[in-house]
Write a structure and sequence with these properties.
Length: 745
């Protein structure tokens, strides 16, 4: 067993190797981003906005001088973080003074930058999550701790913050950062995965947890947990999964997605040994005869389905399946190698499963049928289609499938807008047969952006989404106001009753008013002025003139306080109770029992209250409170219901899963004595809030920990046990196990 000093040294070496790998790969990454932004072929792609194309051209030009600055800033921040073991706590802090950060305005750009940073971190973890989990366990063991520090250098969100902060520090815009997300996500995910791998290899070489057993991390209840629903006693941990790419998604057999692909590859290699020789190359050359045959087959499928669509009878019929089977045989005859023939068979089996999946509405299944030939072309030319669950072609099929597979079990039909977007995506893929991975990644990104806005305009969900956004804005502002009020009153002698009223009641009143009328409206300013008047009234009044002034101001002040509380949904009894408490505090001040506030200190306080919006802390630092979430009396409760009860104590893994659920996906929710299908329609800033909609349009809002509690108790489960392509791969494996010779026949 290593000594404490030796263990700490190994942990440092792991971080050093991780950092060195990142630094070593950064020049190529910067080059890739610059090349991607200036790629000339993008101008010919349909659906590309002229303004976006121009922005990318401008960015490519800017990156030539500024890319070096960005690169150097990232390297410097990584090396500084290595020395300290941790890094900056926010994306905007690199090169920014403490005073500037304290006084910075929380604007839309800051929030968007936070979101962009979070997306980069999630993209990295989608690819490198398993390597990170192993490295985290090993380093935590060496450092004799349960968990890494929240700002540990090894965490993906720390790197994401460094990258975005360096980008802004280099003079590049946050909008440009969002434009290059597709390439940035891919390049950093692969680079970080390799860096984690090298750090793990170092520790394994030093015999640090050579075999990691994650089972102790899965907590199970003894005898069940009472979740508040009569008769429900169940295993707390029903499933541990990463929903983003299905990397460890649960299945009826307990076999995760990665294991399914590994089993497929082993089975193929037994029948076609040459397949193993090409499985890990970047690209394979497709034989001209097969390439032409795929193009001919694609045109034939397009003509058939288009003719049926023109007659409004398009469907995946047995006749179409037979035609696809015949085309498969023709493709095999055109193939020039066993590897090509095996690839044709596997893709055909995958799509046979997808096209006979009854949970996909028939109107959408025809568009999946048109994807078969483009996917085949990618699979033949890019062997990692079978080696990784993160290939963009797989992810696109899985995302579209997850969004539509819930409709068949409900009374709702797929909306025209969603079906039109799927149609557009397929047609873009068809239009660029030789683009391969890049076109799939492009349309996947566009589909994700579509989903972000789709539920905001869909008739069944837009009212609920709007209210959920208002609730989030209100609660975020209320907490921000409370934080700043505590700072302002920290050294001011104010009666405790007044202090608590301002923190727990009036902060929410100001927040509600700001949401409804705007932060700079007259109504919001009036609420801030009422806070100032209340603080002044609660100070000691020792002269006759001061007491007369209090008596004159008190009735309109109390009237304003009552009106403010009423507008925020405080019931009459609570309003009366708060006013009684305030009267007692003001009476103490009137009798000179309270301490006096120096005039110059009060004037400073008044000025800061008037400029309160500019002093608010970063929105990303705010943790929403479940108790605040339950108070939405001022909103339309018929359109939005906050789920405040049920579930069981979540593990960290469940909280992480709750953060990774994807908009558009379907789930089965047990709530209010019934079980029904729900679709995730919206997620708030930093995913603290999640909104689900039922087939009848009922909207249910979950705070993050409550959502994790429902996942933990099995009260919220994915409607599909596993991703569409994983299920199809499992079905294909069953057929190949029964008849391996079909790979080459």
């Amino acid at each position: 067993m290593a000594t404490i000093g030796e263990a700490a040294g190994l942990a440092y070496q792991a971080r050093r190797v991780y950092t060195e790998e990142l630094v070593k790969g950064l020049p190529a990454l910067v080059t890739a981003v610059t090349h991607w932004a200036g790629a000339p072929e993008r101008s010919t792609m349909p659906g590309m906005e002229p303004m976006l194309l121009q922005r990318l051209r401008d960015l490519a030009a800017d990156l030539k001088p500024r890319g070096v600055v960005w690169h150097q800033a990232v390297v410097a921040a990584l090396q500084d973080a290595l020395r300290r073991g941790t890094a900056i706590s926010g994306p905007g802090e690199l090169g920014t003074s403490t005073q500037a950060r304290k006084l910075s305005l929380v604007d839309d750009e800051t929030i968007e930058l936070e979101i962009t940073t979070s997306r980069l971190a999630l993209a990295i973890m989608d690819v490198a999550g398993s390597e990170f989990s192993d490295l985290r366990a090993r380093v935590a063991l060496l450092e004799r701790r349960d968990e890494l520090d929240a700002n540990d250098l090894l965490r993906a969100h720390v790197l994401a913050r460094i990258v975005t902060a360096a980008w802004i520090g280099a003079g590049l815009s946050d909008s440009a950062l969002r434009d290059v997300q597709p390439v940035l996500h891919d390049e950093f995910a692969l680079l970080v995965q390799e860096a984690y791998h090298e750090a793990n290899s170092l520790l394994v070489a030093h015999r640090v947890m050579a075999d990691i057993d994650l089972r102790p991390l899965i907590r199970r209840s003894r005898g069940g947990v009472n979740t508040g629903y009569a008769g429900l006693v169940s295993d707390e941990t029903r499933m541990l999964t990463r929903s983003g790419a299905g990397a460890t998604s649960s299945s009826p057999t307990g076999e995760n997605a990665t294991a399914v692909l590994a089993r497929l590859n082993k089975m193929i290699e037994r029948q076609v040994p040459a397949f193993a020789d090409t499985a890990h190359v970047g690209q394979r050359t497709v034989s001209p005869a097969l390439s032409n045959a795929i193009g001919s087959a694609q045109q034939g499928v397009q003509r058939r389905l288009q003719a049926e669509q023109d007659q409004h009878v398009a469907t995946v019929s047995p006749a179409l399946l037979e035609e696809l089977q015949a085309r498969k045989q023709a493709l095999k005859r055109a193939a020039e190698s066993p590897v090509e023939r095996a690839t044709i068979e596997i893709v055909a089996l995958l799509f046979q499963s997808i096209l006979t999946e009854e949970r996909i509405p028939s109107s959408v299944r025809v568009w999946f049928a048109r994807l078969q030939m483009p996917v085949l072309r990618v699979a033949v030319g890019e062997p990692d289609f079978f080696a990784t669950i993160d290939h963009p072609a797989r992810r696109l099929i899985d995302r579209m499938g997850a969004c539509v597979m819930g409709f068949e079990a409900t009374a709702r039909a797929v909306s025209d807008a969603l079906e039109a977007e799927i149609k557009r995506v397929v047609q873009v893929v068809e239009a660029y047969p030789d683009t391969g991975r890049r076109v799939f990644q492009t349309v996947l990104t566009e589909f994700e952006r579509f989903l972000e806005n789709y539920f905001k305009s869909d008739a069944a969900t837009k009212r609920g989404v709007s209210l959920a956004q208002q609730v989030e804005q209100r609660e975020t502002l209320a907490i921000q106001y409370t934080i700043e009020l505590r700072k302002l009153l920290n050294e001011v002698p104010v009666q405790e009753g007044v202090r608590q009223f301002l923190f727990h009641v009036w902060a929410d009143v100001m927040a509600m008013t700001a949401v409804r009328t705007g932060p700079q409206s007259d109504a919001t300013k009036a609420m801030r002025a009422a806070a100032t008047d209340l603080i002044w009234s609660a100070g000691a009044k020792v002269t006759r003139e001061e007491r007369a002034e209090v008596i004159r101001k008190l009735p309109p002040l109390l009237k304003k306080l009552r009106e403010g509380m009423e507008s925020a949904g405080v019931d009459a009894l609570k309003r009366d109770e708060h006013v009684r408490t305030l009267n007692e505090s003001l009476a103490a001040a009137f009798s000179a029992k309270a301490a006096a506030i120096p005039p110059e200190r009060f004037e400073e306080l008044r000025e800061r209250l008037e400029a309160l919006e500019e002093l608010l802390p970063e929105a990303g630092d705010v943790q929403l409170d479940q108790t605040l979430m339950l108070d939405i009396s001022g909103d339309d409760q018929s359109a939005l219901e906050v789920v405040g009860e049920g579930g069981s104590m979540p593990t960290p893994a469940m909280v992480q899963w709750a953060r990774e659920l994807q908009v558009g996906s379907w789930y089965m929710l047990e709530y209010g004595g019934s079980t029904e299908a729900v679709q995730l329609a919206w997620q708030g800033m930093r995913r603290h809030l999640s909104l689900f909609v039922t087939p009848t349009g009922r909207c249910l809002l979950f705070e993050q920990n409550r959502l994790a509690s429902y996942l933990q108790a099995g009260l919220l489960l994915p409607a599909q046990d596993e991703a569409l392509t994983v299920r199809a791969t499992r079905t294909a494996l069953a057929k190949l196990d029964a008849d391996p010779a079909r790979l080459l026949n």
